[in-house]
Recover the amino acids of this structure.
DNA sequence: ACAATTACGCACCTTTTGGTGCCTATGAGT
DNA sequence: ACTCATAGGCACCAAAAGGTGCGTAATTGT
């Protein structure tokens, strides 16, 4: 327990990894790095996410101290989400990943095409 | 299509993100960054992974050009996996994430405890 | 008076993910 | 002659992820 190691499945670092290795967390945290956002704004910004997954992921991130939820206690509801310091430090690493994905998605596409073509052309 | 954006669910960068936002890819790629490895070595190094998931993930990574599979064509089989240049550039970002997880898993644990305690203590 | 808005909760259902056990082939060790 | 190790494939099954539709409470706009 002294030296957390992600390769050890019993280590809590593994749990941490699973939390952040989520498609939605990888988008929500970087989205919040620009500043606090409301539910509806996140819903608009992150294409393809459902209300359910947004709420669920935000709650999970809040529970783990990465996101801070601020409920204005008004009706109709006004709730803002922002990064904690911890969340902010993580989102830097996630932004790097997102950028990598944006920059290299073309390479992946090309590799996939090559691979699949090779498979059908036989030996 | 000119500017790939991960927030756009129809963009191929999103597919790229989903590929790398996988628990196992996040461990396999960094593991390979130390040098080529055999199936059995990876199985030993990465605690908790099953043979099935290892094979499956490696195949997916190979298909997308991140990992190169080198089959020695011997019996008993000897197969080595190593990172491509593309895979290597990605693994740097992943290693940063793994390290974050190792360094901050304690913070996450603490936050979770606090959160859950608050929930049970009532209003 | 009536609809829309906001940020969800809940239940139901489908899809995906992942685990397990069983199978292959051959050469090396006993 | 027999077993072990290697790198998987394949089929079956359990579990988890995720989508959709419905309800909610009060206030603002028409």
């Amino acid at each position: 327990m002294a030296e957390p190691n992600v390769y050890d499945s019993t280590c809590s670092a593994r749990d941490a990894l699973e939390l952040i290795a989520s498609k939605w967390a990888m988008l929500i945290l970087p989205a919040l790095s620009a500043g606090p956002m409301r539910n509806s704004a996140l819903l608009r910004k992150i294409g393809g996410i459902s209300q359910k997954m947004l709420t669920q992921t935000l709650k999970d991130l809040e529970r783990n101290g990465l996101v801070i939820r601020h409920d204005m206690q008004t009706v109709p509801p006004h709730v803002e989400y922002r990064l904690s310091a911890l969340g902010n430090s993580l989102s830097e690493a996630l932004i790097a990943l997102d950028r990598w994905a944006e920059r290299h998605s073309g390479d992946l596409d090309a590799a996939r095409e090559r691979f699949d073509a090779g498979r059908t052309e036989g030996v």
Q: What stands out?
A: Chain B has a mean pLDDT of 94. Chain B touches chain A through 56 residues (CB under 8 Å). Strands of chain B lie at 37-38, 67-71, 79-83.
